[in-house]
Structures are given as structure tokens and as C-alpha cells.
Amino acid sequence: MRIGLWLLFAGLLILQLFVPPFIGLANNADFGKVAGWLSLAPVDGWDSNFVFFQPDWIRHQRDYWRSPYYSSETVLAWLAATLSGATAAEGAHFDIRVLGAIHAAFLLAAMGIAVRWRAVAVAAILAFSDVCYIAYCNSFYMDAAAMCSLLLMVAAAAWMAVTERPTVVQFLVYGFAGLVFVTSKTQHAIWFLLVTSFLAMQCRRGPRIAGALIAAVLLCAAGLELGTAEPSNRAQALFNKIFFQLGPMGADLRELGVRPEEMRLVGTHSYMPGSPALDRPWVDAFYARTGYGRLLVWYLRHPGGALRVLNQTLRTDAPAMRSENLSNYRREDGHPAGARTDRFAGWSGIRSAMLARWPYLVAVWYVVFVAGCIRGRGRAGGLAHLALGVAVLGAGEFLVAALADCLETGRHLFLFHVCTDLTICFAVAAVVSGSLKTCVTSSSVPSSRP
Questions:
Q1: Is residue 325, in this structure, part of any structural domain at all?
Q2: Which residue in 290, 349, 353, 416 is deepest, having the highest Cβ count within 10 Å?
Q3: How far is CA 122 from CA 126, 194, 356, 360, 402, in A?
Q4: How many domains does the chain fold into?
């Protein structure tokens, strides 16, 4: 049964990612942040951005860009390019499906652990075989590394939680996945304390020295990811938040450090032609006198404004589990520009419809789920703490995406949706077994104690 579930999941990945007409996700102009390091450019040119999925890339030294963005996704892409021979030869071709295979390996490893609990595996297959998630595998998006590593990290954490004495191998799997996660993107690196706190809890039952070393590596890696974050990226995001969202809402922008002569920018965003946010010196100076610290103070002084932003995000952006402006098809597949696939979209379709019709249902769900985790800590132990951590991460991803930026917020809620579906998997396990503790003790998980 377990092998059958794993093979079913593998088959669903293969059908979507590798068997023609295979799918992926179109570039929104972010691919260069990763592909630029490898001197890769799409064969059919950059004019296919948004409207077509581009699987074929070619290496030319003229396309090298020393990207100011550092991500574990770049390492995964380098590995894929190296395996396909596209890192040295000028004019070498690169098929993005090689990178898709590496992303898929994370998912298959996570499912290899999850099949220990059949109820969890069935729920995970329903959710994470959806095109909403799988399409990211055939892409250079940094969130692809974040999603794949998060699922492997949570699976490894659950494995550790139900083992009487966690082993070094379990710590290494968790640490590897955690390393890829915290270095995938600045937006996710800020949650390094959640990643390391669970590891610290397990150190009381497992190899303490190995756990301490892994935790130290994770802390240093997260610090480097945060310390090397591109300043202009957050400055432009703040520009968008202030002028494109808060200004039209009627906020007094003077409290945020905006000068009177800049009020003319209300209603504009950083991607508009002629925007001052495209001028690096100007936007750096703008950020120096505004900044996210000042925005946080504004939210605290104006909780009504913060609630309006959160409400708008919940009602407008959260239902869009799939990016509406990013195609899944290649140009040669014969579909109209911008077309998206309907195959394997049942789960995201149902979830999106529910979020659109009852947007506050997900907020109620998180409250009920967190309450259940707190109540079940005595019975389920480490699993309840893990489930609680996933819920905190999901809520945190929502808050950061909603309160820190306002463009493509739906896409920035990607990890929020991943975490939400993980909470559903935990809930299914609890319902089927009667309690998380019963679930794991009845699953015949072998102890690792010598």
C-alpha cells in the first residue's frame, strides 16, 4: 500500500512535468535572478514572458548577469545545468525539466516519509499533486526551492517526532531541507527561529552535538541570506505599499516620511515607466527616510488601516492560488498566449472557490487548528508542536505578504497556501486516528533505538 501510494504520486509528477505536453510556469521576469548566474537565456527570447512557458534555454556568456539575489534555487539550477552539460560550453542547451527533476526529487523524498501514515499520504497526494504546486517545479522561481524543501523538512520533522531517539540521519535530512529553505528567499529566511527551535527540542532526545552543529549552520545561513538581501528590492516594495495601496486608501503619508512634493506619486507603482523607484539613488534615499520600521509603527498606530489591508488581501488575493497571468503551456503546444491548464487543478480549484465565497473561513480554520494543537500537546507531543509551527509559519507568511508589499500578492502567498494544505494533512491524520498520538503509534513506525 505504501509503495503504491508513492508510485501514484511519482506517476502524477511524471505526467505533468516530463510527458508531452508537459507543463511548467511562465517567467514573470524573475527567472533572470537565477538564470543570470548561469549565463542562460530562453531560446525563444524574453518576449515570451508571462504568455508562454519556456522550457528550452541556451548558454551564452553575453547573458551572464551577476545577480544581486542569492538563493538556494541558484545552487539547484547550477546542479541541473552541470548534470545536463550546460555550464561550460558556449551555446549549450539546457532543458528546464532537468531542474524539474531535482525539485521533484525533494517531493518524492518527502512522500517517501509521508507514506508511513496512509491517511496523511492520501491527503498529501490530493493536495500537492495539484498543478498549483507542481508547475513551479519546471521553473527558476525561488519559491520552488522553498516549497520543495519545506515539504521535505516537515516530513523529516514528523519522522523525528515519532521516533523514540532521533538519529543523525534524520537530523541531517531535516538540516539539509532546512538549509535549502532558509536560503531560498529573504521572505522565508526570517522564519529561521521556527526551523531551529524544533531542532533544539529534538536535541533533548537525539544526538545533541550533531543537532547543535546543524542549528548553528542554519542560523549562519539565514543570517547570510538576510544580510545579503538586495536593498533596492525592499525599497521598491515599500514604494509600492505606500503610494499604490496606502495612499489611495487615504492614509496620511507624511507619518511614513513622504515629502509634500511626492504626493503626486499616489496611485503609482515602481514598474510604471518613468517611476522614480527605478532610479537607484532616489529609491535608496526614499527608503532611508521611510523604511519598514516606520511602516510597522504606522500599523500599530492605525490598526484599522492594517485590518483593511489584511481584509483586502484575504478577500482579493488569497483566492488566487494559481497566478492568473502566468501560462503553463509552451508556444508550440498550440494554446492561446497566457493559457493555463485545467489538468490536475481540482484541489486548487475547490480551495480557490471556497476562499472566494467564504474568505474568512481560512482565518477560522487557523484559529481552530491552533487551538487543537495547543490542546493536543500532551497527547501528541512533538507532532503537535510541529503542527503548531506550520500554522505559525503559514500565518506569518500571510502577514508578511499582505503588510509588506502589494503587487503580485497572490503569488507571494504561495507558501501560505502550502502551509495551509499541510495543516489540512495534519488535521486528516488527527481525525482518522482519533488523535495525533494514536495516528503515529498505530502506523508501525520502527524505533531507531539500538
A1: no
A2: 416
A3: 6, 27, 25, 26, 31
A4: 1
Closest CA to 244 of 283, 213, 271: 271
Give pLDDT tens digits for 410-449: 999 999 999 999 999 999 988 887 644 444 444 444 444 4
Cα angle vertex 356, ends 352, 361, to 5°? Answer: 90
Retrieve residue 209's grid coordinates. 552535538
Closest CA to 383 of 368, 393, 372: 372
313 falls within a domain = no
Average pLDDT over residues 157-183: 95
Give the count of beta carbons closer than 10 Å to the beta carbon of residue 31.
Answer: 23
359, 318 contact by CB (below 8 A): yes
- Residue 307 within a domain: no
d(CA 426, CA 119) in angstroms, rounded, equals: 9
| Cα–Cα distance, 381 to 385 (Å, whole number) | 7
Cell triple for residue 33? 535572478
b/e map 40-70, b = 16+ CB within 10 Å: bbbeeeeebbebbbbbebbbeeebeeebebb
Per DSSP bridges, beta strands 40-42 and 93-95 are: unpaired
Q: How far apart are CA 320 and CA 349, in angstroms?
A: 9
Q: Is the dihedral of CA 163, 166, 168, 171 positive or negative?
A: positive
* Helices 382-404 and 291-301, packing angle to 10 deg: 100
302 in a structural domain: no
Q: Which residues on neighbouring strands pair with residue 59, listed in sequence order?
A: 40
